[in-house]
Structure formats: C-alpha cells, structure tokens
Design a protein that fits this description.
- The chain has 160 residues and is of the alpha+beta class.
- The chain is 21% helix and 28% strand.
- The protein contains 2 helices and 7 strands.
- Strands 1, 2, 3, 4, 5, 6 and 7 form a 7-stranded antiparallel beta sheet that branches.
- A hairpin with a 2-residue loop joins strand 6 and strand 7.
- Helix 1 crosses helix 2.
- The longest helix has 19 residues.
- The radius of gyration is 17 Å and the shape is elongated.
- The chain starts with 20 loop residues before the first helix and ends in a 14-residue tail after the last strand.
- The relative contact order is 0.26.
Length: 160
C-alpha cells in the first residue's frame, strides 16, 4: 500500500493495525467465502502451487521505506466456479453487498464488449482492505482480498 496502510497517510510512523499472519489469512478467507456465497459461486479447492491463495509480502512505503519489524501485507485470492451467464448478476450482487457494508466502490463494470466483461474494485474507507472480483474464464470468477500494511500483535513498530 502506498502509505503503509495507515490512516494518517502522511505520517510514516502512525501506528499500524495489528494482526497475525494467521488471523489475516483467516479474515481474508472469510471475506472470499462471503463473496462467493453472495455470488452463488463455489470456491475451487485446487490451488496452483505457483499462485497460492495467500501471498504475504513485506510492506513498502510511498518513499520505498521498509522496516524489519515483521510488518506485512496479504493478497488472498481464490477462483470460484460459476457459469458465465451468471457472472454479471453475481458481480452486481457482490457490489451491492459491499456497499451495504460501507465499502467504497472504486470501479465496476458489466460490459460484454470489454475484457474482462465483469469487474469490481472496492476499498474500505477506514480499514483500507481492498476487494476485487472479476471474470477469470467462462466458468470462474477470481475473488481477491488485499490487506493494508499490518503489524504482528507482539512486534514493536519501528520508526523511520
């Protein structure tokens, strides 16, 4: 995240939200399950070993700062099976559910003339998690949850 995921934005030393990697993965998995349920899609259990569902990376600040205090971001993605004829309705249903939960819709489309035809990007205004839903192929949607920069509960946050 460009601002290390903190609410202060310009304050690189603002306290980061705290969560363990295990909790973050559990939380992201819950979001994808909820989105799949809303879309009436079935999450596919098989995962490409080169693209695991949970991918943790180090946080990099907007001025390329990084710290060795354990902070991380998580990108959690899954494929959900659903016939192409239902993709537009599914992505619209997820959009509506996310709006009800207070997320800001940053981009949305249902347009068969472009690729991918169905697309949704949303962000939580306070917690800064990012949600994405899009067509993957004729039988699948891709559901993605990305966290802001998180700090493990027992880590001491380093300052820049």
């Amino acid at each position: 995240m460009s601002d290390n995921g903190n609410e202060a934005g310009d304050d690189v030393n603002a306290p980061l939200p705290r969560m363990s990697k295990e909790k973050a993965e559990e939380w992201a998995k819950h979001w994808t399950i909820s989105m799949a349920h809303t879309a009436k899609a079935e999450i596919q259990p098989e995962t490409d070993p080169d693209l695991p569902a949970a991918k943790f990376t180090n946080c990099i600040g907007k001025n390329n700062e990084s710290a060795d205090d354990g902070r991380f971001t998580l990108r959690y993605s899954v494929r959900a099976k659903l016939p192409q004829s239902q993709h537009a309705k599914a992505v619209s249903a997820v959009r509506d559910a996310l709006k009800e939960q207070g997320l800001e819709i940053q981009d949305f489309r249902n347009d068969p003339k472009v690729s991918p035809p169905n697309l949704l990007y949303a962000k939580h205004p306070k917690d800064q998690q990012f949600i994405s839903v899009r067509d993957s192929d004729e039988e699948h949607l891709v559901l993605i949850v990305s966290t802001p920069c998180l700090l493990p509960p027992d880590a001491e946050q380093k300052e820049f």
